[in-house]
């Protein structure tokens, strides 16, 4: 429950043009946007392509933040093309919707969020999320969850 921590900051966030969206049980702090209410009020009608289709696949789709190993964290631009390429990451290595993917990478990192989660969505695979990698638990976790594919980076 972080509302108490965020509430004093809401006026300055609004002044800076930052919206605070919340999801979950209310009540919400004044000025916070209740995401569930927006979802409930949203139309089921498809939006016209010109609203959501990028003019150029190299346009910015989203930003991820670097870890700041050489200084402060910086926003890194991810294009629409790169985001779509992540959808087919597991397909490139032969995985399919029948696979169970073990993911213990941080979701704030591109390898965890875009390659891991978006990659699983791309093939319709089951994703087993582990809060933190544990070498001593790894094989036990894999057996217990029926894992057939795992993703790692050298630092694990």
From TrEMBL:
Gene3D superfamilies noted in UniProt:
N-terminal domain of ligase-like
Segments crossing the lipid bilayer: 107-129
Keyword Lipid biosynthesis: yes or no? Answer: no
List residues of the AMP-dependent synthetase/ligase domain.
Answer: 40-152
Task: Kindly list the GO molecular function terms attached to this UniProt entry.
Answer: long-chain fatty acid-CoA ligase activity
State the GO CC annotations.
endoplasmic reticulum membrane; plasma membrane
Protein keywords: Ligase, Lipid metabolism, Membrane, Transmembrane, Transmembrane helix
Q: Which reaction does it catalyse?
A: a very long-chain fatty acid + ATP + CoA = a very long-chain fatty acyl-CoA + AMP + diphosphate; tetracosanoate + ATP + CoA = tetracosanoyl-CoA + AMP + diphosphate
Protein family according to the UniProt entry = Belongs to the ATP-dependent AMP-binding enzyme family.
Name of the protein in its database record: Long-chain-fatty-acid--CoA ligase
The organism encoding this protein is Setophaga kirtlandii
Q: Which gene encodes it?
A: Slc27a3
């Amino acid at each position: 429950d972080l509302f108490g921590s965020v509430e004093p900051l809401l006026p300055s966030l609004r002044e800076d043009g930052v919206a605070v969206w919340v999801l979950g049980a209310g009540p919400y702090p004044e000025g916070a946007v209740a995401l569930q209410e927006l979802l409930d009020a949203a139309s089921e009608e498809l939006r016209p392509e010109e609203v959501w289709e990028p003019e150029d696949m190299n346009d910015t789709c989203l930003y991820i933040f670097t870890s700041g190993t050489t200084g402060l964290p910086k926003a890194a631009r991810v294009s629409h093309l790169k985001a779509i390429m992540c959808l087919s990451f597991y397909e490139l290595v032969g995985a399919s919707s029948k696979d169970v993917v073990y993911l213990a990478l941080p979701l704030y990192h591109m390898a965890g969020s875009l390659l891991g989660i978006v990659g699983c969505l791309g093939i319709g695979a089951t994703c087993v999320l582990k809060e933190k990698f544990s070498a001593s638990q790894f094989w036990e976790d894999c057996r217990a969850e029926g894992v057939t594919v795992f993703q790692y980076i050298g630092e694990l």
